[in-house]
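for the writeup, i need someone to sanity check this before i put it in the appendix. the sequnce is what the collaborator sent (i think, or maybe the updated version? ugh). structure was predicted straight from it, no edits. if anything looks off just tell me and ill rerun, i have time this weekend
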Amino acid sequence: MSRFTPVRPGTVTKALASPQLPSRRRTFLQAGGTLLLSVLLPQTAHAARILAVRVWPAEDYTRVTLENDSELKTTHFLVKNPDRLVVDIEGLELNATLKELVAKIQSNDPYIRQVRVGQNKPTVVRLVFDLKEEVNPQVFTLQPVGNYKHRLVFDLYPVNPPDPLAALIEQSSQDKPAAIASLPQASNPASNPASGTSSASSVPPVEKPEIKAPVKTEEKLRVAEKSDTPAEKSKDKFAHGRTITIAIDPGHGGEDPGALGKNGSREKDVVLAIAKRLKKKFEQIDNVRVMLTRDADYFVPLNVRVEKARAVQADLFMSVHADAFVNSAARGSSVFALSEKGASSTAARWLADKENAADLIGGINIKNHDKQLASVLLDLSTTAQINDSLKLGKIVLNELGGINTLHKQAVEQAGFAVLKAPDIPSILIETAFISNPEEEARLNDGAYQDQIAESVVRGVKKYFAKNPPLAKNRFA
């Protein structure tokens, strides 16, 4: 005999409608019926929606970012003859925002010729990047942070990047004869900090240094250091003989706008303008070479900034920033150095934590990021390096005090990740508070940017006058 009692059609309906049933039992049956229907009826899948597309072309690499309302799954592969990168994105329907990507690829992009977008399958969108040369792609996702939602990122790196030191020597030999005819003008974009490049005017043309393969780095360096004739030499020169290499690091960039001013100024734009002025002024000194960790609007991870300085065997590293605080009355310039034993103040610790979070906003590929790098560099940092940084910082801070109020009268210390090069005196300069409307206006003024640059150059000159650079193996 069957153990199950058959239920005739309409039994449940009648039971639910029966006035004799207790109220609690009637509620229970109604809830059960609703649950049963939700399980049996097919559910409509929610397609992901693209919220914004951004492109950041640069000599180092080109980044393409798709911001969306949920995490996306992708597959990608490379195709030869001609070189192409094909990306299939699942659970996505083509929309007008995604189609904007086609127009955002610029003719001066070093690696992407054009991009094609199409609905490959009902729920799969295919992107085809037509490439200018072979690339090493990194495709990864970023979780929501700050003002950003989910992000799908394509970083296209050259397969054969130029040797950093050889490229710097080549660039310096081209830049030295040029006088300061037209210094970069400050910009004050009031656009959304997340907005990427979408017009040719927002990113300067990218010119690759032509590095002749037959000439070795060592030979180029020897020629560059001995080829100046007396007529070509400028009157301004450091007292000691050998060439000095200075690494200037404009903070933030690309996906990371940095601090924002009340009137829409972005830290990343202001500090890049100041860094370019610094570079021009240092290059007027005969035996100085300058390397910018970024020369356009793109993001450079903190550890890569340190690696770039070490790759060109820099004698000094200066990271340029514009401070911000919740109180818009805060003002003045500051200089920071590394600390191995903790921050010198609560404010210094807060600032270091904020600056060290740049990788989260800018976006790094965790799979390829050396998690041990920061701790290794910190372990290798010596007391001598920090002492030299403090000496440099004190002199530069004193010079900045001649043109602006000092926020702190002494060099402060904290665990800034970008200052952790173990063998390079390194300082972080907070030029002014971009959150202060008055200082924001000054930071966007070309004349004031010049004053900042002149102050820093004077400080570096005085530092080297008292602390001649140590001899280095320039060909290591």
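The mean pLDDT is 80. Residues 317 and 426 are 5 Å apart (CA to CA).
thx in advance!!
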